[in-house]
Amino acid sequence: MISLCMHGCNGKMGRVISQIVAEDPSSSITCGVDLQSTGTEYPIYSSVTDCQEPFDVVIDFSTAAAIDSLLAQCTSLSKPLVLCTTGLSEVQRQAVAAAAEEIPIFYSANMSLGVNLITALCRKAASILAPAGFDVEIIERHHNQKIDAPSGTALSMAEALKDELGDEYFFELDRSAKRQKRDPKEIGISAVRGGTIVGEHTVLFAGRDELVEIKHTALSKEIFAIGAVNAAKFLLGKAPGLYDMTQLIG
Ligand SMILES: NC(=O)c1ccc[n+]([C@@H]2O[C@H](COP(=O)([O-])OP(=O)(O)OC[C@H]3O[C@@H](n4cnc5c(N)ncnc54)[C@H](O)[C@@H]3O)[C@@H](O)[C@H]2O)c1
Ligand SMILES: O=C(O)C1=N[C@H](C(=O)O)CCC1
User: What does the entry list as the binding residues for (S)-2,3,4,5-tetrahydrodipicolinate (predicted)?
Assistant: First the structure.
């Protein structure tokens, strides 16, 4: 049995995790952290360090602005952290790496199995298609409540592709001010926001007279919640370090 502290418990993902855990006999949420202290069956605090109930692991789905403080709270208590919030700055990502020297941290911009599989498939496709002259574009679509753009997943896929293709490749997030043809070394990233789209990521390889598209569609937020709870179970008893889906999937 694992006991959890849910950071961002009143948010969309926090509520889905609460439902998933309520149906899981091997996990429980003993306490939560959010800006408002009502709305759940478990007590809610304004900081992880204020929580009175025992817990093994913190799961976070909140906002980038909360992460500096969250890292300090988890390291001060020596609590493992499953960090799912996206939109972190480069400085914050360095802070995550530094905190992971003290506590186990699982960080993934996308907790679904499928996205992590297609990222590996895209690496393979890119290694064959880009040298043959195919342009690489990532198109992501999300709901109209999402704050960060492009999505953490799109950035993480772009990083994987750049890692595969070489340092001469670069990200192009906004062509609006440019008046020039596409650079062959661009990895274009486009973000669409609308309605209740849970999350779609398409990697397009556009060649001369042929297109290859690799696409993942999330049909519910539950896939992220299940991945986060599995990550919390995976972290239990682990040494300090930075873990991700590649280790969880094995
Ligand atoms: N890694 C993944 O698989 C994955 C999947 C879905 C969403 N996300 C990311 O998770 C984050 C949350 O998504 P959401 O849709 O639940 O957002 P949301 O806006 O619905 O919920 C965020 C919650 O965090 C709370 N919050 C804000 N500041 C806080 C603070 N200082 N301390 C504690 N709680 C605070 C808010 O009050 C809110 O209840 C986003 O960054 C999103 O991109 C990641
Ligand atoms: O709903 C969101 O917000 C999501 N955010 C993640 C991202 O930015 O990649 C994962 C998909 C859902």
Answer: 143, 152-153
pLDDT (tens digit per residue) in 140-154: 999 999 999 999 999
**Ligand 2 atom 11, closest CA:** 199
Domains, in order of start, for the chain: 2-107+221-249 (3.40.50.720), 113-218 (3.30.360.10)
- In this prediction, the answer to ipTM > 0.90 reads yes
Please check if 1 is assigned to a binding site. Answer: no
CA of residue 127 to ligand 1 center, whole Å: 35
Using one digit for the tens of pLDDT, what is the confidence trace for 81-117?
999 999 999 999 999 999 999 999 999 999 999 999 9
Which entry of 7, 79, 142, 216 is annotated as an active-site residue?
142
111 marked ligand binding residue: yes
pTM (predicted TM-score)? 0.97
For residue 235, which of 73, 2, 62, 25 has the smallest C-alpha distance?
2
